[in-house]
Amino acid sequence: MDTHAALYEQGKARLDALRQLAPRQQLSLVEKMQQHGITRRDFMKWSAMVTGMLALPLPFSNLVAEAAELADRVPLIWLHMAECTGCSESLVRADTPNLDSLIFDHISLEYHETLMAAAGWQAEENLEHALETYKGRYLLAVEGAVPTANNGSFLTVGCKGHTGLEIIKHAADGAAAIISVGTCASFGGVQAAYPNPTGAKGVHEVVSKPVINLGGCPPSEKNIVGTLMYFIMFGKLPALDMFNRPKWAYGARVHDNCERRGRFDAGEFVEEFGDHGAKEGYCLYKVGCKGPYTYNNCPTERFNHHTSWPVLAGHGCMGCSEPNFWDDMADFEKPLGRQLLHGLDATADTVGAVILGATVVGIGAHAVASIFAKPLEE
Amino acid sequence: MSKRVVIDPITRIEGHLRIEVEVDENNVINKAWSSSTLWRGIEVILKGRTPMDVGLIVQRICGVCTYSHYRCGTEAVENALGIQIPLNAKYLRSLMQTSLYMHDHIVHFYHLHGLDWVDVVSALSADPAKAAQVALKYTDKPIAAGEGELRAVQERVKGFVETGKLGPFANAYWGNGTYKFTPEQNLIALSHYLKALEVQRVAAEMLAIFGGKQPHPQSLVVGGVTSVRDMLSPARLQEWKQKHAIVTDFILRAYQADIVMAAEAFGGEASVLGGVNVKNFMATNDFVLANGEYLFDQGVIMKGDLAGVSDINPELIAEDVSHAWYSADAPQHPYDGTTIPNYTGFVERDTVYGKLPTLDGDGKYSWVKSPRYQGEPVEVGPLSCLLVSYARGNKVVVDAVNALLARTGLPVEALFTTLGRTAARMLQTVIVAQEGLRTFDALLTNIQSDETTYVKPHIDPSKEYVGHAMIEAPRGMLSHWIRIKNGVIENYQAVVPTTWNAGPVDANGKIGPYEASLIGLKLEDPTKPLEVIRIIHSFDPCMACSVHVMDFKGQALSEFRVSPNGQ
Fold first, then answer.
1. Which one-letter DSSP state was computed for residue A102?
2. Which of A4, A25, B27, B83 could form a disulfide with B523 if both were Cys (CB 3.0 to 4.6 A apart)?
3. Mutual orientation of helices B418-435 and B395-408 as an angle, nearest 10°?
4. A83 three-state secondary structure
5. Is B204 left (phi over 0), alpha (psi -120 to 50) or beta?
6. Chain A contacts of B562, Cβ < 8 Å?
């Protein structure tokens, strides 16, 4: 890694290798845009404009507060599919703004099974009423994967016994925007892990509209509320990455901003939980941290009002905001090494590939250095 | 002429629950069916994976009692491998559990169960000055219940209602005759509903201090706990204690006061004076206070006989699937069970809302299995936990229960009611919050001489391992069972609180706690069945927990005979 030219070659080789892998998405981004009548030129203009907006400084909470006066009440319909309610629990933890001001001041929460007062027949009436009354205007948030095996019959909701699959398709038709909250709704999540007995899928795989994916198990309260507020503030979707995650939240790797990055660069690794290095805050790569392969703002935003995040608590990142991480990143307390990851495809730009390629090489180099350093420590 | 009432979705719970009841001409329930309508298959997904990943995966069974499954799964593996974790790790796990309970029970009472007791519309006509005086009746130091605060809450909600959009409060059963609070009492409780949204955030932060985040913490590993830096940081320890004090304050000055207020107001309300009709209770010992000492006791009480409490025998647990959407010939012990999906769908019939697909009570009708202890249905949960410890003569619990009974003037029998179930959850929270500090002190003492938090586990791939763990989740006794072979998971089963409580009728015609709790209940208006929802919520349903599978015995997934519309 002594010259940029060498780095470029490494990245190019990596891209070539990745190009040999089967694509995860059926359609490329370019094809998708064409389907929706977006030219490349339009897309570039749109990207430039939204990127400009996204350059507003973090923490996002300041932005939210300033724009509160501009906010209109937006009807929000939140549906639960195959899930554990962890994402709703995360929403309930929101503090900027908190949930009650979100409900009273910013959104009109028309349907949310964990929070709404109505039940049964009357709850279903609320949903039908909201879908009809606010057609074309409502924001649809989905928590949980959609079971598709056996015509979706592994999930039914409501007195009329509709399957989750039917409900999602119907609700998506009239939505102004769709947000998949969490890794289950985004990419299928834990129930879609091998062998995926219920045919669980992410929402974007069963509807024919663009979907914003908020990866994370669960996503932090800031990423959920930040995305809702973005739509409320600007009335449009934020800039998205290749997995349709908002760039403002998922634009950087966990590794890039990690508080233990200095330890990584110095070749100081926790060798075993609870050891000297663990007490000193050494890098968790060797006990399985997936931060180098994971795009999220956990290190800067943390969770629960900035209280902590897994790496601060001494456990490596498990990669929970990435597609298929339950299979690709297991076994979670062991390093992945140089294994190829899904994190890139043919549409990724060369610079990013170069950076990721360099990191993987860097990890290898540090691991080697650390192996040599070990006898000295002992 | 009997009528069928269908309630789906049961909202303000975790997961997807459908309840159906049949009422007679006097609107009295004579039959009830409880059904979970989602199947996820977590346990089949576990097969073939490393046991070291168990905790992280099974935690995703539930995002509400998120930490419970994490801990139980991790401890099942430790039990199988014969690992004794360091004392510090035990204390840290106990502190996280304390944090979880303080969080979970507050959220349950105010945000999930609360609107069954509190009529929001009635609160809008309250006199805030009078309400502030009423609040003083239930505690010397009310919280968020001064005249100014109550007026502000009322005006805020009024303004919201005047926009014509009731949002999450729309189309509920406001004005139902079984709401018993006065407008002033409703306003106090509504104010606490909003205050609790703030306080629960602090409680979640408590868990995040040692857990990394909440929900889905990430600091437990097979062999111990990883947050050693937080444990050794005086600032972090103090942060936990400070947040603990804030949340405890709310528990004592709001939660406890509101339950006393509810006991007074609802003391004569028929629909909450029954509802504990399976009088078998089970709980396991949990909450490590110091080395070898637990806050709560284990045991089984059958037929309501508090004098006859016995030790749990794990061998006597079996799951019946005769009316669940699975196939099996006989009840099975968790180590040896099979789960072969056999979905038979709904049956169309007349209901109070017209023709609807309904549960086939004579056949199969739920994704939840029916666990039995010695062939009998058993209720688990905070009420069971307190009854078992009470029957054991656990001084802390006996004193707390007796003090509440004295304060409300209610007899011991009042415990065996829906009201008692809700009060037991509050009492458990108070006990956990106050006594849990002993764990904190034990940790401070121990780290003076011992900083270990982890022992490295070892799996011999040539050996087979079997193990289980039993803990008290906020919803009741939780057990995880694992078999390990060739170094990977051979078989996994979770028998969870909501399965014990929500399971369908078994092959012997014995019905579980949810269904039994509804029999004999009179509804004011079958098309607005508030009473049913109130009773079911008192169990704190958690459906994602209760729906699981284990072993397909080589059956190909494509061969499941599943038809969405029945046969």
1. I
2. B27
3. 130
4. coil
5. alpha
6. 149-150, 153-154
